[in-house]
């Protein structure tokens, strides 16, 4: 069994990745400081609590285990917060990741799957966005991820690190078992926030800006199911283990939905009226982000299993409803 280190594996996407790896016959070990993750999301015996800011903890981790590859999910991800607290994002998303890469280099672990983001593109020149589109991030979050992509390229040339940079669009949904799902505190993602209104935890949903150059004035995003993301990571991992070399791929469904459309789908799935109010734009938010994931589909055989927004929302609703019981 290949032993895989999952950094940030107690978080939303990371915990789904651990389930995917177990299902596919891998031996995952999670390294997480639980600042935003949850120990209940990690199968028993697979969590090592530690922090990327501690090089000695990383050195012990790699000395005690022989990893075949590392998957990295331990990033801060809130666009608006990155604008108001940029040093927090550069410290964690860049400096702490350098600690991880240094430990990997010392241990001669040379396969790395990196969670990147569509935010590296900024406001796109054309939609859908392909991997060759201009890279012009408009917020510190996107810039921190682009910095890491460039550093990974340098590491490939310097010491043979093979990496897969996977540029996510909007992760959503929950595991079909409803045993794990999205559980941020505070919540910042649109689908769980809307579902909190349906559950009576919020009075209304605030739409941040209704004057964008889109059909209904609200931001348009590409939503991809978290289990489909995990499957794509496994395909990338398998390619690296087979010696494919470094790669960069988008991960999205290729279909854009406006915030108002998301609210309507949530109303349909939950059967609850969801009041809406309009607020100011969030800083650093592009109007339109929709992926072309053709490379991942054609070169690696990826095919999203939850392609429809209604199916994504339904899985999230099942998870949040169960947690509210």
Shape type: globular
Largest beta-sheet characterization: 7 strands, parallel
**Helix content estimate:** 40-55%
Classified by CATH, the class of the largest domain is Alpha Beta
Q: Can you tell me the CATH superfamily of the largest domain?
A: NAD(P)-binding Rossmann-like Domain
Q: Count of helices?
A: 10
* Proportion of residues in extended strands: 15-25%
What is the H/E string? EHEEHEHHEHEEHEEHEEHEEHH
Q: In angstroms, what separates the terminal alpha carbons? A: 38 Å
Q: The CATH topology of the largest domain is what?
A: Rossmann fold
Instruction: Label the CATH architecture of the largest domain.
Output: 3-Layer(aba) Sandwich
Structural class by SSE content = alpha/beta
Cα-atom radius of gyration: 19 Å
Number of strands: 13
Please give the domain count: 2
Largest sheet: spatial strand order: 3-2-1-4-5-6-10
Average of the residue pLDDT scores: 95
Contiguous uncertain segments of 5+ residues: none
């Amino acid at each position: 069994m290949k032993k895989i280190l999952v950094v940030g594996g107690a978080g939303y996407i990371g915990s789904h990745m651990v389930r995917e790896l177990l299902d596919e016959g891998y031996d995952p070990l999670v390294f997480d400081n639980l600042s935003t993750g949850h120990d209940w999301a990690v199968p028993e015996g697979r969590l090592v609590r530690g922090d990327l800011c501690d090089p000695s903890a990383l050195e012990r981790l790699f000395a005690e285990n022989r990893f075949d590859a590392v998957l990295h999910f331990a990033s801060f991800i809130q666009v608006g917060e990155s604008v108001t607290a940029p040093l927090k994002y550069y410290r964690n998303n860049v400096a702490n990741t350098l600690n991880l890469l240094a430990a990997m280099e010392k241990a001669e672990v040379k396969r790395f799957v990196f969670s990147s983001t569509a935010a590296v593109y900024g406001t796109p020149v054309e939609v859908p966005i392909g991997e060759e589109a201009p890279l012009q991030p408009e917020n510190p979050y996107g810039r921190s991820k682009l910095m890491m992509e460039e550093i990974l390229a340098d590491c490939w040339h310097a010491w043979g690190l093979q990496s897969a940079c996977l540029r996510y669009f909007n992760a959503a949904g929950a595991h079909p078992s409803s045993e794990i799902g999205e559980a941020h505190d505070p919540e910042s993602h649109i689908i769980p926030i809307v579902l909190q209104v349906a559950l009576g935890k919020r009075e209304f949903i605030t739409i941040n800006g209704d004057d964008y150059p889109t059909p209904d004035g609200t931001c348009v995003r590409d939503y991809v199911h978290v289990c489909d993301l995990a499957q794509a990571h496994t395909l990338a991992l398998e390619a690296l283990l087979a010696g494919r070399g470094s790669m960069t791929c988008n991960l999205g469904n290729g279909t854009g939905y406006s915030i108002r459309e998301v609210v309507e789908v949530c109303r349909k799935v939950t059967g609850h009226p969801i009041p809406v109010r309009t607020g100011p734009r969030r800083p650093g938010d592009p109007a339109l982000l929709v992926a072309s994931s053709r490379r991942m589909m054609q070169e690696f055989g990826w095919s999203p299993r939850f392609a429809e927004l209604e199916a994504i929302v339904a899985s999230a609703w099942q998870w949040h409803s169960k947690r509210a019981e």
